[in-house]
Amino acid sequence: MKAQTNGYRDFARLFCLLALSLQIISCDKDVPPPAPVGPLPSSQQLDWHEMEYYAFVHFNMNTFTDIEWGLGGESPELFNPTELDTRQWARVAKEAGMKAIILTAKHHDGFCLWPSEFTEHSVKNSPWKNGAGDVIKELAAACKEYGLKMGLYLSPWDRNHAEYGKPEYITYYRNQLKELLTNYGEVFELWVDGANGGDGYYGGANETRNVDRTTYYDWENTFALAREYQPRIVTFSDGGPEVRWVGNENGFANATNWAPLRRAEFAPGVADSKQLGTGHEDGTHWVPAECDVSIRPGWYYHESQDDKVKSLEHLLDIYYKSVGRNGNLLLNLPVDRRGLVHENDVKALMELRKTLDQTFTNNLATGKRISASNTRGSQYSADGVLDGDKTTYWATDDKTIESSLEIDFEEETTFNRLVLQEYIALGQRVKAFRVEALIDGDYQTLATETTIGYKRILRLPETKATKLKITILDAKASPTISNIEVYKASTEP
Ligand code: FUL
User: CA nearest 482: which of 407, 417, 386?
Assistant: First the structure.
């Protein structure tokens, strides 16, 4: 029986080859995938893209001094949260639909939220838990309990440390990095801000110290240590290496947003912020943008800002301009003096979650027919974009770039949101695309846009149509689209 089957297969293959050479039929079972267009994401970066939305928590000495940047001479006695509860942070983040929490383990004033053995300027000399507490340990446990990842912010600038500016401080910084990355389980992201040097306490010297931002920290080797301690970590700074700042603190990426970046032109604290929002079409490395923004005007908690929590409309706009523009959203929650996410912030987060859930639950493209103007082979058919599986994707043959996909709703359908995703494992390729809808028998253009990347979400005018067409107008190579979703949001924007 087996021999018979094999015989039949051999015959079929022979027939196929013969037919193909005579150009009678197309046997496309073994068409290779499109060649990758570099630079490509690492597997850590692919995981990072999937996270999309997570919390920043600024909570540290500044919470108690009511300022944004402490000078470094603050007494550890001042750090005294009354109800610190990292499980509340984690529960709120989880219910908000976030995937992780990144905490300011050490901000520019140098106070450490863990009992570092390399300084006295930490929780161990505070009244909180009589000096026996460790916020990082508590957060790690809470994140684990709620299925969240944990990331850590370790400010390179340290206005407390007597040796800041000298080579000894780099040893100190690396010792702290080792403590944080080896004692608390998995850390998914190391967050390195760009503020470097200036006036400070510096062990009582009270002076101004400036450093050469490109050479002082020897970032290449410092980041290599981070990778040695946490092989799956991604490091964020103005220019990566793995994740880049978006160039503003409003939470917005530009509409054209390339994950590739000419990385050598940037370093932490050395960045042309205008370029960071767009990346580079001819970038040399995969360095996607992370969009950081606070839910309030300040990064740290200030009672005076209790009534300045961003509105639902503002938060939605941020979401669409970050997650919807090929970036991840890092939304800051200024934990208050009790050590809790404030009620007003919780309310705003839950309103946002509710609206996003209402919008992105009923995918109007599910189960609809989809066709393509060109298909590379049957395993790259248009069906791959509607099957809910991001590993299957539509691709054209190598010579075809301008090409389109058409979704047939079979009846008049009202929508105003479109989600598009490229199969980025093969690189970010699309440079320009157009969206059209078939309205009363005519195709009308709804949008003409540029990049897609990991995810692009378009807010379209409310449209009633029977078909939706997406035309790739230009790309670095044949397009690879892994997912399309269509929704009707009831709220504006
Ligand atoms: C900046 C810092 O100077 C701010 O205080 C804040 O931490 C922001 C997220 O990063 O570099």
Answer: 386
Domain boundary among 327, 359, 391: 359
What proportion of the chain, given as a percentage, has pLDDT over 70? 94
Q: Which domain holds residue 450?
A: 369-487
Is the Cβ atom of 191 under 6 angstroms away from ligand 1?
A: no
Nearest CA to ligand 1 atom 6: 299
Q: Is the pLDDT of residue 267 over 70?
A: yes
Dihedral (Cα; 446, 449, 454, 459), 10-degree rounding = -40
CATH number assigned to the domain comprising residue 80:
3.20.20.80
Cβ–ligand 1 contact at 193 (below 6 Å): yes
Task: Give the residue whose CA is nearest to atom 4 of ligand 1.
Answer: 299
Q: Give, in degrees to the nearest 5, the angle at Cα 35 between 29 and 39.
A: 150
Query: For ligand 1, is residue 292 a contact (CB within 6 Å)?
Result: yes
- Identity of the amino acid at 410: E
- pTM beyond 0.90: the answer is yes
Split into its structural domains, the chain has a count of: 2
* Confidence band, pLDDT 50/70/90 cuts, at residue 270: confident
pLDDT of 29: 63
* Mutate which of 193, 294, 301 for ligand 1 pocket (most atoms within 8 A of beta carbon): 193
Amino acid at 198: G
Kindly give the number of the ligand 1 atom that is closest to the alpha carbon of 300: 5
Q: How confident is the model at residue 269 (pLDDT cuts 50, 70, 90)?
A: confident
**Given the CA of residue 153, which atom of ligand 1 is nearest to it?**
7
Q: What is the DSSP string of 350-404?
A: HHHHHHHHHHTSS-TTTT-EEEES--S-GGG-GGGGTSS-TT--EE--TT--SEE
